[in-house]
Amino acid sequence: MAIEAALDPDAVAVCDSGGRAPAATRPVHGAARVAWLLHALLAGNDLTIESVNGSAGLAIRRAGTAVAVIAVSCHEDRATTLWIVLNPAKLRGWPGR
After folding, report:
1. Helix/strand/coil for 18
2. How many C-beta atoms lie closer than 10 Å to residue 52's C-beta?
3. pLDDT for 16-71, tens place per residue?
4. ∠ CA(36), CA(15), CA(37), 5° rounding?
5. Count of C-beta atoms within a 10 Å radius of residue 75
6. What is the reported pTM?
7. Separation in Å, CA 16 to CA 2, 26, 52, 68, 77
8. Would you give the end-to-end CA distance of the chain in angstroms?
């Protein structure tokens, strides 16, 4: 699986939905579990690479509207930590909406 290969074996994903979107309520640990979470978020949506907090990150859109923005920390050539914002209130002003 390509997503899992891009993740550090000990990768962690933290979701922020503000209780307004379906999301994991606790950090997700391990490359396989984080990859599963990303696959679930990507289903039927578009993925783009964008600047997030001044660094390369990801935006997931449905019909042109951001449904998730992901900040990524890396070590060497693998993603170690993903901060996934799913809260619609925080995504309202996201560029390209």
Report:
1. coil
2. 17
3. 987 778 788 899 999 999 999 999 999 999 999 999 988 889 999 999 889 999 99
4. 5
5. 11
6. 0.90
7. 25, 10, 15, 10, 25
8. 30
